[in-house]
Amino acid sequence: xxxxxxxPFEIPLATFTPRSQLxxxxxxxxxxxxxxxxxxxxxxxAAAHVVRPNVLVKEIIIPLTEINLDTSSCxxxxxxxRTINSYTKYATTFTGVIEKLTLKENLxxxxxxxxGKLLDPKxxxxxxxHVGICPECLDELDKTETGIYYPLIWYMRAARIxxxxxxxxRESCSTCGKYQNFVAHHAMLGYCTHCGAWLGTPTGKMxxxxxxxxxxxxxxxxxxxxxxxxxxxxxxxxxxxxxxFVERIELYCQALTNGNMKRFEIRLGFKKDVVxxxxxxxxxxxxxxFLELCFRLGQMPIQLLSxxxxxxxxDHIGHFEKTSANRLRKLSQEQFAAMKTQLEVILxxxxxxxxxxxAAMLGVKRRFLNHHFAELARAISDKHKQAVxxxxxxxxxxxxxxxxxxxxxxxxxxRPISRRKIWAALENEGLxxxxxxxxxxxxxxxxxxxxxxxxxxxxxEDS
Length: 463
Fold this sequence. Notes:
Blueprint: H1 38-48, H2 53-61, H3 76-80, H4 89-102, H5 135-142, E1 161-162, E2 167-168, H6 217-231, H7 233-236, H8 242-257, H9 261-267, H10 274-279, H11 287-297, H12 301-306, H13 313-316, H14 333-348, H15 355-362, H16 366-372, H17 374-412, H18 419-428, H19 436-462
Antiparallel strand pairs: 1-2
């Protein structure tokens, strides 16, 4: 029997899709004015892995970088974590590491990195000290399939309002009054990072009235301008450079003052040599000054950097007064003595105002008090801190007492108890189970109740 040999053939190589170390989440609102912020993406990433965002940063991300998490002078989470959304060192570092862990590309569009070559290298005046929140936006996002995320615009200092609902962004929690942490201890976006309360419109309460009367044209322009910049992140690198900016300034200068840069600077009301230094490439503009230039020229950022200059631009530019420099107030010896007496009276009084409030009361700056009346200013600050500490302890004691009373009442009424019923009963008293102190108190009362039942059953068996 003769065997037929098969013709030689090649064995195809198997191809495998690369696996990411972390869940490859899709960013929300990419390439739109309400694009998600990188910190928000990081928080949702933590929620997908059922870990705390600060744990994800500390245990997974930081070890892959050269960042010193905690030094003697500062703490990364409290001092620098907000710059993850900017265009400086930490934004670049976190973007690269998260892209590597998730295998998701173009996460730089969740930050201001595309505009880094245009703006001041330090990132000054770009970010808020505390994230701003629109409660109505949270209510709407909570009803969507994609869920809640925080837009990058909420982290921008110059964006004072929500352009969608025409209201001022809120920075503090309406329940506990505290500002929100950037990298939180829980991964629930839309809930306070301290007390766990809902940051949207409170249930059963009236919606805040329209705040359009308190919003200026400058506020609206700044917000719209930033939204335009964020929405064009994917193409920003084509024209967002200092060289392009200088070229455009020179063109506008030629159109307004026939090429005289100093007259152009005065015409727009800027301080001496601010615009001149930009034109001479000795400095790059801060974001607030760049937006102010756009506002005074009546041009949105993209138009300023790329569009043709309107022929009737002279007719649309108003007259702006030159901003005066801040100078320290000069006082006579008698005025110094009188101010010192006022400070001593405030220190000895029953109230405990902040240094900022005292300075405003006396019509000076806080640094003026710290410079000329260092000991008194320090004593006023210490008194305020002590008063806040006492008030905090009293509030905690009150919360503990109320929580204990709520749970004790449920047991006394012999009602079936469940986590949902506990949550509802606490919410009626203005408390939340997400607050660690309240949660600890509830557990204590439940354990005491169980011990009491066990002791009663043991006595019954003995008898």
